[in-house]
Amino acid sequence: MAVAGTVGGRWWEARQHPAGASTAAAPGASGPATPASGERRILYYRNPMGLPDTSATPKKDPMGMDYLPVYEGEEADRGSAGQVRISADKVQKLGVRVEAVALRPLARTVRASGRVEPDERRVYTVTAKFEGYVERLHVNATGQPVGRGQPLFEVYSPELVSAQREYAIAVQGMRSLATAGSDAAAGMKQLAESSLARLRNWDLPPDQVEALARTGEVRRTVTFRSPVGGIVTEKKAVQGMRFSAGEMLYQVTDLGAVWVIADVFEQDIAAMRPGARAAVRINAYPERTFPGTVTYVYPTLKAETRTVPVRIELANPGQLLKPAMFAQVELPAGDPRPVLTVPDSAVIDSGTRTVVLVQLGEGRFEPREVKLGARSAAYVQVLEGLREGEQAVVAANFLIDAESNLKAAVHSLGGHAGHGVPALGAASASAPAAGHKGQGSVDGIDAKAGTVSLKHGPIASLKWPAMTMEFRVANESLLRGLRPGIQVDFEFVERQQGEWVITSITHR
């Protein structure tokens, strides 16, 4: 039975594999090798420098570097152009986090500095419309509070005295000619009315005019009273001085309500709306907030500070707010109506295109070019490119180059997205992070181009052999202190396809 089993097995094997055939692929056959049981299948080999070049069989690039294998499960999803597929364990390692594209109001707060100023409509100037002399001061100090109708000062004017006498004589003559002919009485009446009009035009108090008409007694001085209750903010009158017609003698300001003139930066001025509520804080009263209302946006811009004045009116109970005080103002800005938004951290701005990475399913991502609108502190409006409910990638919790920021983070998510979108592919399918480390010596520096040539040893994370190549630096400060021949340790990332950027370099 044993012999019969052996013979039968050989006969069956001959049936399955005729003479001349081999179970192994012939040497030089094209296509990836068939893996043994339990091994991952190699799909193709990719260029080790990140260039868009693949091969079905192992080979070397012009510098002698081996092409890197891409295994099943690590390839980009070819079912849809531009999509990226990565494994679930890599998503977990990278700390990828998504947030839904949703309708949100983009209300925000604009903060500006300002100063307290008097309400210009509540500032009154006290002056005389005739020449004269200051006979007596009733209020003799700047800053003194006064009430409405309170006497301020008394003046003597020869012209005013003459005008009073003329009116008194006209009134007396009009009474005497009351029984005379109509022409004489009418003429005297016209003279009296003319004299009375002159006194009224000179702002002689009505009670003094009435007393003059009743008694005929001419007063030597005239008393000027405050037109409003407030504070004497300016006093030029001095007892005994001579003044001219129209010269300002007192200025009285009502501080029951004041203005705050806030300097709003140019980029925020479009969000300012008259009628909006504002919150004002004063350093002198840190525990209090004074509510106000935006009443006017000035039409001029200050070229020195690139700011536009915005006027805020607010009540001043107890006159706590003093003119010239500094103020901190919070102004509401933005449209309270909900609009389609994504978190600000989801946006990748290359300078020429703006992209958001969208999660299509478990481990599948797609870059979307978007058009953005208004911004708030944490969110940005999306005008085109996304739909409500889609999941946008907003965070990946690992260290990335400060210059590449989110672009370098998206680098580690797998294959290149294509279509000219920079930094959407990983530098290496087998690298768990975007950064790589190396050691070597400086071969040359081009400060104008922002590059350094390094003669470095093997890079294990990329399977590079030792060679001399040129790197770009993330910022010019990294070139300081470098000179040819010194030994350095450096870290670098692939910012764009085939562009290697040094993010840190130190002397050894």
- Number of DSSP helical runs: 6
Shape by Cα distribution:
elongated
CATH third-tier fold name of the domain at 120-253: OB fold (Dihydrolipoamide Acetyltransferase, E2P)
Radius of gyration of CA atoms, rounded to a whole number: 45 Å
Uncertain residue ranges = 1-31, 76-81, 397-433
Q: How does this model look, in words?
A:
The protein is 15% helix and 39% strand. With 508 residues, the chain is an alpha+beta fold. Among the domains are: 2-71, no CATH class; 120-253, RNA polymerase II/Efflux pump adaptor protein, barrel-sandwich hybrid domain (OB fold (Dihydrolipoamide Acetyltransferase, E2P), Beta Barrel), CATH 2.40.50.100; 254-324, Beta Barrel (Elongation Factor Tu (Ef-tu), domain 3). Strands 4, 5, 22, 23, 24 and 27 form a 6-stranded antiparallel β-sheet that branches. The chain has a 6-stranded antiparallel barrel with strand order 7-16-19-18-17-20. Helix 3 (158-176) runs antiparallel to helix 4 and helix 3 crosses helix 5 (206-215). The protein is elongated and about 135 Å long. The model is unreliable at 1-31, 76-81 and 397-433 (pLDDT under 50).
Overview in brief:
The protein is an alpha+beta fold.
SSE blueprint:
Elements: H1 2-16, E1 42-46, E2 54-55, E3 68-71, E4 84-85, H2 88-94, E5 97-100, E6 102-105, E7 108-118, E8 123-127, E9 132-137, E10 145-146, E11 151-156, H3 158-176, H4 182-201, H5 206-215, E12 221-225, E13 230-235, E14 242-243, E15 248-253, E16 257-265, E17 277-282, E18 285-297, E19 307-315, E20 326-333, E21 338-343, E22 347-349, E23 354-361, E24 364-369, E25 371-375, E26 379-384, E27 391-395, H6 406-411, E28 435-446, E29 451-456, E30 467-473, E31 487-496, E32 499-507
Parallel strand pairs: 30-32
Antiparallel strand pairs: 1-2, 1-3, 4-24, 5-27, 6-21, 7-16, 7-20, 8-15, 9-11, 9-14, 10-13, 11-12, 13-15, 16-19, 17-18, 17-20, 18-19, 21-26, 22-23, 23-24, 23-27, 25-26, 28-29, 28-31, 29-30, 31-32
Helix pairs in contact: 3-4, 3-5
